[in-house]
Amino acid sequence: MPITLPNDLPAFDILSNEGVMVMSPGRAAMQDIRPLRIALLNLMPKKIQTENQFARLIGATPLQIDFQLIRMSDHESRNTAADHMQSFYRRFADVEASGEKFDGLIITGAPIEHLPFEEVTYWDELTRVFDWTQSHVHSTFGVCWGGMAMAWYFHGLIKHPLDHKAFGCFRHRNLFPASPYLRGFSDDVLVPVSRWTEVRQDQVDATPALKTLIASDQAGPCLLEDASHRALYVFNHFEYDSTTLKDEYDRDVAAGKAINVPENYYPDDDPTQPPSNRWRSHAHLLYGNWINEIYQTTEFDLTKIGG
């Protein structure tokens, strides 16, 4: 079944042309079912690209999804047109004031890894988001910096700087095949990684509330479950398109920045050759499993979520 998107959101036509089932709000309202309400708190500069990546994954399940876009209240995007933000995004302050509830929330990463969390301009509001999820969201998925921020806020898990960027596609081990979030996963998983910071496995292991579901000998912990806060934290990028790492590499090369060729991404690590996507199936499995787990456990009456 489809994901519900506004007809004029760029993702509507992009995903339709890819074969993803999308539905307009008017058509969805005619169906006598309750769609899952999934929101995306988008902290990335390239809003449209990020919308497409996550909508593609959560729109591939057999369930109807009501997809909502949220932004920080007073943080203005410099990389996305103002009319797009005005048309499709709601300020968190307005969502908070409305009292409405959600089955799921994805909090994206942000290119501010070098800053201590407390120095991020919207940190105070973001901590309000984290607290709000405990009463207004059934399940939260923190991605990359968003996941590290949640783990720091709820558990004091430290974000450590790296001396060089963790950049490429790294092999990961499936540590809990019986987890409902890893149904159908192979024992060995390739995951794109792109970050200048890390959380360390020994510190995760010393935090009883956190369980490592997927980890890499090279790139460290990847997917953590935080059952006490009904949350998952993923530090790497299952959602990336085939060329996202290439785009990041080309951007840094063009800017004259020191950047290593992303490992195990290009054939023979040769950036003149086109990369291939070897993580797509696991990306769909992960987000499909998350949606399914929400469907199995959420309240039919939205007002009872978090109650």
UniProtKB/TrEMBL annotation:
TM segment ranges: none
Top-level EC class as recorded in UniProt: transferase
Listed GO MF terms: homoserine O-acetyltransferase activity; homoserine O-succinyltransferase activity
Domain of life of the organism encoding this protein: Bacteria
Subcellular localization: Cytoplasm
EC number from the UniProt entry: 2.3.1.31
Example of a GO biological process term: L-methionine biosynthetic process from homoserine via O-succinyl-L-homoserine and cystathionine
Binding site for substrate: K165, S194, R251
Record-linked Gene3D superfamilies: 3.40.50.880
Reactions catalysed: L-homoserine + acetyl-CoA = O-acetyl-L-homoserine + CoA
Site (Important for acyl-CoA specificity): E113
Site positions per UniProt: Important for substrate specificity: S194
InterPro entries with a match to the protein in the record: Class_I_gatase-like, HST_MetA, MetA_family
Active site feature: C144, H237, E239
Any Gene Ontology CC annotation: cytoplasm
CDD domains to which the protein is assigned, alphabetical: GATase1_HTS
Pfam family, one: HTS
Keywords: Acyltransferase, Amino-acid biosynthesis, Cytoplasm, Methionine biosynthesis, Transferase
Pathway assigned to this chain's UniProt record: Amino-acid biosynthesis; L-methionine biosynthesis via de novo pathway; O-acetyl-L-homoserine from L-homoserine: step 1/1
Function text: Transfers an acetyl group from acetyl-CoA to L-homoserine, forming acetyl-L-homoserine.
Membership in a protein family: Belongs to the MetA family.
UniProt cross-references to HAMAP family, sorted A to Z: MetA_acyltransf (MF_00295)
Alphabetical list of PANTHER family matching this protein: HOMOSERINE O-SUCCINYLTRANSFERASE (PTHR20919:SF0)
Protein's UniProt name: Homoserine O-acetyltransferase
Source species: Paracoccus lutimaris
Gene name tied to this protein: metAA
